[in-house]
Amino acid sequence: MLEDLMKRCERAYLETFAEVSHSKTTLLEQRIHMLRQARCFRMDYELAKSAEKFGIPYTAKPLAENDWQYTYVTAGDFGVTQSYVQKMGCLPNPAKFRDTLAKTSNIPQLPLEDDAEIFKPRNFYGLFAHNPVGAIFEEEKQKLGSIQLCVPYGCMRKFALEVSIAELLAEYPSVATPSIAIPAPTWKRDPKRKDTGTE
Question: Closest Cα to residue 98, out of 78, 84, 82?
């Protein structure tokens, strides 16, 4: 899933930039702000679709806040959301649901039709923190710069763990391509040539 999510995020950053940069109804001065909002919706979508692809429980229903539905994915000991950060190491904008998840690593059971797995207590709340290469509204600067899995302390004031998706993927053994054994060449002596013993 992490590999799939990484590819989706790279594509999402490129595509949302292209969509906003071609918008005829958005002022040039406001495009960077529109891009941040559009990208947040797109990243929630990609997180949900990646989880769905691999049969991992997810929902956007229990995490409604300020008229915004946040994608929440659960896997093993983790419950995870995603968020833009200005730079790696920075916390996302304050949100009550993040505070609650960080403190309790649990969300209350609600009368929804979601998989019951989504409501089981988790040992850790994590978030995929991501940001672009730069801050200027240019294609090269708005490509995906980095994405990390971050686990905040219960106080939600700093991270206890920050590890890039690339580092996480490196921890898993890659599927090696089977190599074909090529036998060493057998040298034959030229019968017409005399051996001088110098070669």
Answer: 82
> What DSSP line would sit under 70-98, residue for residue?
PPEEEETTEEEEEEE-SSTTPPPSP-HHH
Q: Report CA 36 to chain centroid distance, whole Å.
A: 16
| 148-180 b/e (C-beta count within 10 Å ≥ 16 → b) | bbbbbeeebeebeeeeebeeeeeeeeeeeeeee
In three-state secondary structure terms, 37 is helix
pLDDT at 112: 44
CA 22 to chain centre: 26
For residue range 163-177, what is the model confidence (pLDDT) as tens digits?
A: 999 998 888 776 555
pTM over 0.85: no
Q: Is residue 114's pLDDT more than 60? A: no
81 CB neighbour count, 10 Å cutoff: 23
Q: Is the dihedral of CA 35, 91, 62, 65 positive or negative?
A: negative
Mean pLDDT of the chain: 83
Please give the span between the terminal C-alpha atoms of the chain, in angstroms, as a whole number: 57
